[in-house]
Amino acid sequence: MNCRSSLMPALLVLLFSFVSYSASAEWYETTGEAIIYDGDKETAREKAIRDAFKQALLLAGASVTSLQEVTNGLLTQDTLEVRSFGSVRDFQVLHETYSEDLYQITIQTDIFPEERLCRSQEFKKTVSIESIHLANREQARVGNLFSLPKYLGNAITEQFRQFAKYAVLLNPKHYPAASYRLRFTIDDISLDKEETNKWYIWQDKKYDRFFRMTVSMMPHDSEEVIFNQQFSGRAPWTQDIYSNIDLRSGAFWNSAYGREITRSVENTIRGVDDVLMCQSIRGTVLKVLANNRVSIDLGSIHGVNKGQLLYLMHNADFIDHEGKKLPRHITTNKEFEIEQVYTNTAIARTVGSKFLGNVQVGDYLVDQ
């Protein structure tokens, strides 16, 4: 299905709402999928198209909050919430397939690449997993899913590698000082009490299973929550309710329920990445060196490159009248240029001939 000649108003609004355009567009080929509920292939197809379109926009650098309605393979309502300076020109459906419980569709989308939204996009923010908690262990009895937190951690690690553009997941055993911490709570993995095939008495009973997860993110040095969101879904539980599931097997992760978990994890990573995109990066001064140079705890894993400019910020924490230590930071216009870059650290020197004088260990270099 070629949609080149009939772009709907939603796409036209999207196209003309951006302030700048690149000299050339890029084509993105993406595959979307959706679970088929109760044999409703039409609804699943619409959801799969939305998913494919969202993947294309995200590949081009956008942040998509919602995609609401598709009719006959075309967007029909202006319900896109897109954070991007790119633009959509055209898209076409290449091919589509479906099985008993899954609809897949591949589209090709013509998108102008985005321009930079904020200076902090240049840098990667480091995150680590603080905990993955199973809230209701009784629900794990069906399928023997008690080790789900462990294997969910593996899925999170893999999804970070695939989809995160502005964040990098660090192993706390090797990198204990990540800038942000993630807490995961698996809230619900219960079976739906109502059978999905109750009218087919000759078949074994089939149930949907829920998956709901809450994710919170805090800076490494405080309990201030900068991201807190719940991700939920449901999918057919195709395994016998009395069998033990091997969470190491591809069979589980390729099942409808396994794919639903993977989708929830992907949405989590997208959300975290979007929040961190324009978060300011801050490098702590580790050592004051000769010749107006300092060593900081930012390196190549943070996206630091030779020639980038950072600004000095003094750490001026103070003790209040109750004896509590409170943070205070004093910004300056003193520039530092990155001179040497290592994995976890970098050397920066002052721009011009300004004397470092009052720079101390524990001060910061920031990007804005």
Sum up the structure in keywords.
single chain; alpha+beta; 3 domains; Dodecin subunit-like; six-stranded mixed beta sheet; 368 residues; 5 helices; 36% strand; disordered N terminus; Thrombin, subunit H; Rossmann fold; 19 strands
Q: What would your notes on this structure say?
A:
The two termini are 47 Å apart. The chain folds into three domains: 9-112, Dodecin subunit-like, CATH 3.30.1660; 119-277, Rossmann fold; 282-366, FlgT, C-terminal domain (Thrombin, subunit H). The protein has helices spanning 9-16, 41-59, 148-163, 250-253, 256-277; strands at 26-35, 70-71, 74-75, 87-98, 102-112, 125-134, 167-169, 180-188, 191-195, 207-219, 227-237, 282-289, 293-296, 309-315, 318-319, 325-326, 329-341, 346-350, 364-366. The strands form five sheets. Strands 6, 7, 8, 9, 10 and 11 form a six-stranded mixed β-sheet that branches. By secondary structure, the protein is of the alpha+beta class. The chain has five helices and 19 strands.
Structure classification = alpha+beta
Indicate the mean pLDDT. 79
What is the global morphology? elongated
Total DSSP helices:
5
Order of helices and strands: HEHEEEEEHEEEEEHHEEEEEEEE
What is the CATH C-level name of the largest domain? Alpha Beta
User: What is the CATH architecture descriptor of the largest domain?
Assistant: 3-Layer(aba) Sandwich
Distance from N terminus to C terminus (CA atoms, Å) equals 47 Å
- Tell me how many strands there are: 19
The CATH superfamily of the largest domain is identified as: ABC-type transport auxiliary lipoprotein component
Rg, rounded, reads 24 Å
β-sheet strand percentage? 35-45%
The level of helicity is 10-25%
Low-confidence stretches: 1-24, 64-85, 197-203
